[in-house]
Design a protein that fits this description.
- The protein is of the alpha+beta class.
- It folds into two domains: 32 residues, no CATH class; 170 residues, OB fold (Dihydrolipoamide Acetyltransferase, E2P).
- The protein is 30% helix and 23% strand.
- It is built from six helices and ten strands.
- Strands 5, 6, 7, 8, 9 and 10 form a six-stranded antiparallel sheet that branches. The chain has a two-stranded antiparallel sheet with strand order 1-4. Strands 2-3 form a two-stranded antiparallel ribbon.
- A hairpin with a 5-residue loop joins strand 7 and strand 8.
- Helix 5 packs across helix 6.
- The radius of gyration is 19 Å and the shape is globular.
- The C terminus is likely disordered.
Length: 226
């Protein structure tokens, strides 16, 4: 950021945001490949993305879009095992709150959960600010990176709210109401599914990732419109 580089072998093309890669709000994008090289020995990419997606924009993204978000952890759900032995994966759901009080829930899988298990276990109590990159379909991906209380402009804007929550100056009962309403909503949706799919549990562990994505996204849309 704030530097100039000469980039060779880069292709400029119209932005295909609805087809691949992350959400890019520009008319054109640069495509790098094996022939691309940068004429600089001091190349330093920013540690964190500059532009983060507002929660209300997530629901408008095409499926499989990579998104970067930041929020205050206000709820950390219990873990569940998804899939059958021996390929079962550990999964948890985390609820973020933005500076306007909007909530979003996304799932954490695999290494993103195990490598940061202690940090995640303390996030709800500490009301940590977490920046998550390359989320796809409301889930962590193989490309996701997580930063806890990062040095980022958006994090600094959230810190004042975080301190007020810790100090008890903001009533957080609406978060528990959201969680309870969400599970009731998802349970009612799951109960209408084809019995052959096995999606009849209160938790989503019996469902495929595709089913989890569409049900959670539907829940988000309804919640945003409450």
């Amino acid at each position: 950021m704030g530097r100039k580089y000469i980039i060779h072998g880069v292709t400029m093309r119209p932005n295909f945001e609805e087809l691949e890669c992350r959400y890019i709000q520009h008319t054109y994008e640069c495509s790098f490949n094996a022939r691309t090289f940068v004429e600089s020995l001091s190349l330093q990419f920013p540690t964190y993305p500059k532009h983060l997606m507002p929660f209300q924009e997530v629901q408008r993204c095409p499926r499989n879009t990579f998104v970067d978000i930041i929020g205050i952890v206000v709820h950390y759900d219990g873990h569940e095992r998804i899939g059958g032995y021996p390929g079962a994966e550990i999964h948890r759901e985390v609820t973020f709150m933005d500076m306007w009080g909007k909530l979003i829930v996304f799932g954490i899988w695999g290494g993103n959960l195990i490598q940061n298990s202690y940090r995640w276990s303390t996030t709800e109590g500490n009301k940590s600010i977490v920046l998550a990159t390359m989320l796809r379909n409301l889930e962590t991906s193989n490309y996701t990176t997580l930063a806890f209380n990062p040095d980022h402009t958006a994090a600094r804007a959230l810190d004042d709210i975080r301190q007020k929550i810790i100090g008890g100056l903001i009533d957080m009962k609406f978060v528990q109401q959201f969680i309870e309403w969400r599970w009731a909503f998802l349970a009612s949706e799951l109960s209408t599914k084809d019995p052959d799919t096995g999606c009849i549990q209160r938790k989503l562990g019996a469902c495929s990732r595709d089913s989890r994505h569409w049900l959670c996204l539907l829940c988000m849309i309804v919640c945003f419109n409450l």
